[in-house]
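Consider the record:
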Amino acid sequence: MSSIAVCPGSFDPITNGHLDIITRGAKVFDEVYVSILNNSSKKPLFTVEERVELIREVTKNIPNVRVDSFHGLLVDYAQEIGANAIIRGLRAVSDFEYEMQLTSMNRFLNNKIETFYIMTNNQYSFLSSSMVKEVAQYHGKISELVPSVVEEALRSKFSSK
């Protein structure tokens, strides 16, 4: 039986911290679906399609990574693709309470899907997509925070505003 994991998120945009978690998860699981939650209540900078393309570009050298998007409940999506695990990244202790609530609800909804936490590399422990967008908006240095293709996409978005 192969092990399939879902690494969910908004990835608006994907950062080096996300990429660290995805890369490490891909070493543990046979397949990792990096899956963008299509949440219509949020106002993302990048469309779902743009985020899918950026993630495909930055993960193209990781053969067991698939990129997808979904609506609805994560556990329903995970079951639909045959996943038996969810990968979540933790940056700091402050993330844990929220993550514990999500995991508890997911376990309540489907106790056959396990959640695995991966601590982010210390160099990315402060990093969030929101912070990257804010720094990029004011033309600050983000080259060490995101892959170059993402930096270019951010610069393009903010030069057109």
Summary: The beta strands are 4-9, 31-37, 65-70, 85-90, 114-119. Residues 4-159 form a domain with the Rossmann fold fold (CATH 3.40.50.620). The helical segments are 16-28, 48-58, 74-81, 93-109, 129-137, 148-159.
